[in-house]
Design goal:
about 300 residues, alpha+beta, Fumarylacetoacetate hydrolase, domain 2, twelve-stranded mixed sheet, five-stranded mixed sheet
Amino acid sequence: MKLVMFDDWHLGVLRGEQVVDVTAEVRDIPHTGPGDLMSGLIARFDAYRPRLEKAAQSSPGVPLAGVRLRPPLPKPGNIVCMAVNYMENGTLKEPAPINAFHKAATAIIGDGDTMVLPDAPASVFEGEAELALVIGKRATRVSQADAMKHVFGYTCFIDGSARGLPPANNVFFQAKSRDTFAPIGPCLVTADEIPEPQKLAIRLTNNGQTMQDFNTDDMAHKIPHCIEWASSIHTLEPGDLLATGTNHRGLHPFMDGDKVELTIEKIGTLRIAVRDDLKRGWGRVTRLQHKERGGEGAHTPQTTGKYAK
């Protein structure tokens, strides 16, 4: 099943290119807003799934193109992001030690929304294409063998990053948790529709040009290991989001006016815009291209606008 939130935070089921409003089927779930409505549904999904399936089959839909999609997970309790979790197309000799960081839930935006680059002296702004999983039931110190039983579903995730902010080594919070730096969507796909999440094609385009193109089979620490490790640190609750990392070779500067599309096999395409009121500029060069050209540092330098050196 593909779940969406749309227009004035209605709950919908995608049926091809149609959206069926199933909000009436979940009104009895205790909630104060769309965030805890969705997390409440996830926690009770086994009981509510027959209702949703019946409504999706029997009720008329409306064209997907005629609605405004919202983030399918409006306010996750936790956003856990795996760090350096790909083998970079097999070019790394061994996996980096497993690691992660938290991202603020207030950074969430949805399909059709805009990532806003802040007035901050970042050396570059990037967005990382990632597969994210959503926790379906409480996970505390779960084993790898049991980890996938705790996955509710999957969605597309773009990890916005403001790199190189001073002071040195004071990075993750101010780099990752900026408002609008966590686009997700367009839908939340239940786990039964993706039986093999470790073999999904991921492609990110910017203004129509392919910049990231990789597969989840290149993941260094596989999904069960990520869940086992994260749940050994703190409990994961229904509706929590765990982003599984990216292949860094295609990372490139995000700039004002960019139209970014992230497509993940079996999920769909997440589309966002980028706005920078300062109109800063960088070369449209991926990290891999920058390295191959003998450039200094991890990415191409800023060329125009405030903070350019």
